[in-house]
Hints:
The protein contains 5 helices and 36 strands. It is mainly beta. The strands form 9 sheets. Strands 10, 11, 12, 13, 14 and 15 form a 6-stranded antiparallel beta sheet that branches. A 4-stranded antiparallel beta sheet has the order 1-36-35-34, with no helix packed on it. It is globular, with a radius of gyration of 21 Å. The relative contact order is 0.14.
Amino acid sequence: MKASDARGWLAVASAAALLLAACGGSSNKPTGALAACGSGAKAASAPSQAASESWPYPNGDVANTRNAAGSTISSANVSRLAQAWTFKLTGKAAVGVRPYGSLAANPVVQNGFVYLQDLDSNVYALALSTGKLEWECRLDMQVRSGPGPNGVAVADGVVYGASPTTVFALNGATGRAIWANSKLLTAGEGTFGIQPQVTNGRVYLASQYGSGSGGGVLLALKASNGALLWKFNTTVGPEPGVQALGVGAGGAWETPLVSGDGSVTYGIGNPYQTPAAAISKPARLLYTDSAVNLDAATGKLRWYYQGVPNDFKDYDMQASPISTSVNGTPVVLGSGKMGYVYEMNAETGKLIWKTAVGEHNSHDNDSLDALEHTGTLKAPFTILPGSLGGVLTNMAVAGNSVYLVTLDVPLTYTNLTEPTPTAAPGTATGEVEALNLATGKLQWDTEVPELPVGAATVSNDLIFTTLYNGVLIALDRNTGAIVYRHQLPTSTNAPIAIAGNTVIVPAGGSLTRAGGGHPQVVAYTLR
């Protein structure tokens, strides 16, 4: 994002705050557009559904493993996937958000429904078996909070989501608003664009791009009424360059991890400073580019691990943290646009291993060198991964491996006073990789010809992802060989869901990309 783009984003975010002020009111009683959601709708009758025919959380399960439990799709039958239905967006949402398309969030599948939210903040409930629209909550937020991803969470028959400034809860059967809270963020704390996590009676979410002294904020709300339980600032102290640039820092934009030990872990974004600021006034800038582990009930800090101190490359450590165990030891996995995967002890945050993934050049340590006054940097210089690259989307875990996709996009700084590279990117390609959970060592690496932006998703012996130009692929988990490839109706920029024998693909239709077209959700079922 260029500084001029960021300034434009801040302007529309301010307008969004004014537009949505009527949606929450002074209490948590829904008014305005949210009050009209589901009006006149009859309660949708969900068909009987086996527990295996679900994707109940944003990343499949509460541990964020993206492992499709109960899926019947494997290498033995993947060739039999055929289109079952498609649901096309209408109205303003069909226009698309350049260059992101209209859909960037993971669908959630529960009780026979597919729930999703577009980048205009509209929420939809579709029948899993037919794709029929059961209800919708239309906010048509053409004034947006940035690249999203947006998205909803579902718990106990209630759908939870957010628009740029308002968090809300909807009845899962009718779409009627239950509560809405637009009083959660103060000036400078950014806007919402995250897909929340809901469990144990709490809604966990975060703001993006906070420009105040505390940067973005992490929050927990009471699921029953939207009341604020706690708030945690993601930056501490002054932020070199950020205030002068008029842009935001920190915050989180991927679903957090809620662990059984009573903690919640977020992946935090970057401090958004220039190379010049990082060199002249270097600082660690906690807690940017970090995994931050908090007490889930109180929001108190338990531990943190910072992947990139003094970051000036817009790298982020934003990926949804994953909970698993290695030889009986609970661990947390994190990653981000810096192109490293980190395994941390779940109790202490101590680093166990880190592994570089995707393509890298000689600039990995620029930020640390500036912090320690051990290096010099002159423009022009090219970074790889660039700020559009590394691990941009969420990882998956199954067996003894962690699976991920990387974006290999070199970008060039032409001067030291811009917060992101401004020169045109080099050739954009990507990779799908597998690492050993115990050691972090590479198991296999498969190059793909386009940007893999669909996250990594496990289904038995397969790894699914999507390519930006609108291709669904599946790879053999053991070898990395591509065993399935299918052309989608349009381009895609969103993770998929797998429920039973069905793959659900949000094809957002980026209008500035080859293959861009009408935004839609497509379901493929074994035949």
